[in-house]
Amino acid sequence: MMRITAHQARLIHLAAQGLVARPRRRAGKADVLAAIARMRVLQIDTIHVVARSPYLVLYSRLGPWEPRWLDELLAEGRIFECWAHEACFAPFADYELHRRHAERGCSNHWSMKSAARTHAAQAVGVAGLLEHIRTHGPVKAAEFERKDGAKGGGWWGWKDEKRWLEALFARGDLMIARRENFQRVYDLAGRVLAKARTLGDPAAVADEGAMREAFTLGAVRALGVTQSRFVNDYFRSGNLLKDPALDRHVVRGELLRIDVDGWATPGYVHCDHADLLAQARAGHLRATHTTLLSPFDPVVWHRERAAVMFGFDYRIECYVPAPKRRWGYYVLPILHRGRLVGRLDAKAHRGERVFEVKALYLEPDVAPTPALATAIAAAIDDCAGWHATPRVKLGRCDPGAFRRELSAALRERAGA
């Protein structure tokens, strides 16, 4: 097997994810669709202390772009919503793949289990709501009033109609026709599919075996390079894989098995990335991008994979009780030239047009150089400008001396 360094593996991973280099031009709507197609899934989360996660994931790859384009792509049927890694946007070309996975009962995802329980326990209400949509058209959960006076929360804290809508969506009876102010608009799957199919049919999936192979190869391609144990997590498509499960793909030339310095097990590269692998080995693949990542970015959403790939221990702490948080509520990993060099606890105060950096932490092995301060200041300033919060408020830094360098770089950006 050919051997590459850990740094070369990181470069292949970031290139496959669209994060190795700065965008060369202003993004357009087609670039948003291309970025989603490259990642295959774009995780949805509603927290918007900075920007909602799908918007920020795309910003990290594309630079400034118009969030309305994501809404338009969904309404046009070019992308659709599904349960995969979690709630995700995915290209419509993958509709049959995700639908077969759900219909065959292959998914052990909590959403499918909750949907099954809801169908079993509240079948009359679920059926009535489905008939209401069939007769009267699309609905939002906000159109139904709570009858118990309680406030919402997770699935368990939703009003009945919201649970019923989500159950029907998970089971495939309903799809998301569009979003209005980020709220889902639910409609019959047949009506949504009829509109989407006017732009082309999704790829066919012959059987369950073909489905599993498509998920396996798709995950490796999206990740650029990965170990076998991380493959199925990408789509939440099955149990932990071991190396022998990938032997047939290696024999067929669909995957390349490689050694990576410092990895205890082999790495895998999709055959479509053979050129990337060659560029990395020749020293021609270089990282030039500095940006802030969403906590739900594919690069960091698997804690162990991020640790193996980058030596970066990352945990999303917005769901951790405040006294137990180490870094902060909504902490953004800082990507700099192929490394995760630190993390930034941020909040966008849109009314005051202020982008607050509550705290910034560099990794212990990262040198706090003026060049690094300049690059991170540019990433913060650019992100703040895209949020329409152009005034950056800088809090504490670790190491403390880095604050002076970063503050000076931010002042220089503001005065430019």
TrEMBL record:
- Which Pfam family name is an example for this entry? AlkZ-like
Q: Specify the protein name.
A: Crosslink repair DNA glycosylase YcaQ family protein
- Protein origin, superkingdom: Bacteria
